[in-house]
Specification:
By secondary structure, this protein is mostly helical. Helices cover 53% and strands 3% of the residues.
Length: 134
């Protein structure tokens, strides 16, 4: 069941629900307990007709982080399609064309390489840290 909420939908997975019995939430005591607790409180508020409130801070992205993630995906797509780092940088960043010598020591080159490497890490399991709010 999905409980729609403007601040983020809530997904309820349950067996048979007896309306005469109170609901319970089971939370594993793991590394994500604090995030799960905040999500459970948001769900409880929504269930009782109140505004759920904003997502837990660990699950929100700053505009800068969101831009970096978008650039990572685009950089990885380009690299996977055979684009050079220089071609990727030309698409991602509005920078003037540089000579080969300038490109070798360019901060944009280093940033582009980092974006691709970080995207590859995300692709190979690093995304789990993002989903866990880390």
């Amino acid at each position: 069941m999905v409980i729609a909420d403007p601040d983020g939908d809530h997904y309820l997975v349950a067996g048979a629900i007896d309306p005469a019995q109170p609901l319970a939430i089971l939370l594993p005591l793991d590394d994500n307990f604090h995030i799960r607790t905040e999500a459970a409180l948001r769900f409880q508020r929504r269930l009782f007709g109140r505004a759920a409130g904003p997502l837990p801070r660990a699950l929100t992205l700053t505009p800068r982080h969101r831009l970096r993630l978008v650039r990572m995906v685009r950089a990885l797509d380009g690299r996977s399609a055979g684009a050079t780092y220089r071609e990727i940088a030309g698409v991602l960043f509005d920078t003037p064309r540089q000579s080969a010598a300038e490109w070798k020591t360019s901060s944009i080159r280093a940033q582009t390489i980092r974006l691709v490497k970080d995207a590859q890490t995300m692709m190979h399991g690093g995304y789990l840290r993002l989903l866990a709010g880390r």
